[in-house]
Automatic annotation (TrEMBL):
Its EC number is 3.5.4.25. One of its GO terms (molecular function) is 3,4-dihydroxy-2-butanone-4-phosphate synthase activity. Transmembrane segments: none annotated. It comes from Streptomyces africanus. Residues 19-185 form the GTP cyclohydrolase II domain. The keyword Zinc applies. Catalyzes the conversion of GTP to 2,5-diamino-6-ribosylamino-4(3H)-pyrimidinone 5'-phosphate (DARP), formate and pyrophosphate. Pathway: Cofactor biosynthesis; riboflavin biosynthesis; 5-amino-6-(D-ribitylamino)uracil from GTP: step 1/4. This is GTP cyclohydrolase-2. Keywords: GTP-binding, Hydrolase, Lyase, Metal-binding, Nucleotide-binding, Riboflavin biosynthesis, Zinc. Binds 1 zinc ion per subunit.
Amino acid sequence: MTEKIGVLGKKSPQRTGVERVVNAPLPTVYGKFQAVGYLDHDRGDEQVALVYGDLGTDDVLIRLHSECLTGDAFGSQHCECGDQLDAALRAVVAEGAGVVVYLRGHEGRGIGLLAKLRAMALQAEGLDTVEANLALGLPVDARDYGVAARILEDLGVRSVRLMSNNPRKREALVNHGIEVAEQVPLLIPPCENNITYLRTKRERLDHHLPHLDAVVSSS
């Protein structure tokens, strides 16, 4: 642990870990959530968990949603992120309780917004999403889910039903001490603009996307 100099010249330990900073009501088109804000002292990222209802401790329905400005805010059809966020929030409300942890710093599977846009430009030239990252000298997936696990622990959650098609998210939560009782598919119908991207996620990143079979067989 590094140290910093306080105002009186005394050394004080630099804060580490994840700190809950604020809890505020957040009415949305889906329902009324509590927005619980956190500061990740290790990475400097500000994070938020959208909490709906009384969670309890076991088998809580959750989504770990990686930040995607183009999909979440701009409605990009290059990916299915915006539709997944919409579906996850609706599912939590329908369940009566649950959490969507919105993970900032995960843009482009952790490479950042500008690098993601560069990768998208390469994909427009014919590379797939994996090849594009590698061509830029970047990791295929640089995301870390430790902060998500710490947030769930702070919320009192011990085991989850994880809305995700990505087996790596399940493995990451388990490795960080969160039990995954069930992995709940979050399948979004593909469109012309993202079918190649989704096929690559299934074939090269091991995402469980069985709904693509009908599209593959008819193409």
